Description:
12 strands, binds adenosine-2'-5'-diphosphate
Amino acid sequence: MKFYTLKNEQKLPAIGLGTWKSAPGEVGKAVIEALKAGYRHIDCAATYGNEAEVGEALKTAFAQGIVERQDIWVTSKLWNNAHESDKVIPALEKTLTDLQLNYLDLYLIHWPVAFKADVNFATKANEFLTPNEAPIIDTWKKMEEAYEGGLVKSIGVSNFSIQKLKDLMVDATHQPEVNQVELHPLLQQNELLEFCNNNSIIITGYSPLGSGDRATSMKKDNEPSLLNNKIIKDIANDHNCTSAQVLIAWHLSRGTAVIPKSTNPQRIKQNYESYEIELTDSDLEKIAAMDKNYRYVDGTFFEVAGGPYKNIYDE
Ligand code: A2P
């Protein structure tokens, strides 16, 4: 498997198992299947509501000798209701307890958006904390503290625009290692990728397959399909592989990590095997022409009337 070496010399495996939307009762089995198939990178988050089951699966995998702790990469994310300085380390500790780990390989600020501590998902203006009430740099200082204390081996962010990265980097002591963002042929984020490359920040792409299993409330009418896209399907035919494998291989060709979600054993294996597919220059040109800045996860769910967050991607 391909790895990306971060500024701090940690090695991030290029393909990880996504666990967003993986249902309770399924996610643990998916983690075991993935580790057996060769995955060494599991992407988690407190808000996915399934870290305890992931933790049980990891414990089983270690006990059965499928993998050892030091051979795998586990990412998790700080939820929006724990941005206040006194909440960051306790939130991390809760994730570590749930995952039954004594350190994470990577901890990310999940969104550049803060909620009040007792709010799981803010839907009214008064349930948010403004950027003045919870400055992202104060949250980052606590991430740095976790890093220096060894609770996490690397720190980074998620859903950050170039502007938000720049603002953070000016005041950071330890620079972010990773920015995890939505990334696929319909949202290629070339400027962000260039900025991250220039600043040695690795991008991890989420929703690489279009996240068709999102809740209906998160979907727009007539969303374009990535898996059924004609250009992708034709390229898949040429390589005798599946559309999902083309979509995953595209990330590796651009130097980004990728975290396809599946709970199906065959698809988990198939997604991992994408690393064997070498897209040609002609394939890459065709895919490059597909960009339309289309977001499946458009962030408008944080834009409530009178609330403090608008246009979170700064577009
Ligand atoms: P399943 O979990 O049943 O395999 P994303 O990673 O963009 O969030 O997309 C996840 C969605 O894509 C899920 O509905 C998942 O279903 C589906 N999926 C994952 N791998 C594949 C694959 N190889 N082929 C088709 N669909 C896939």
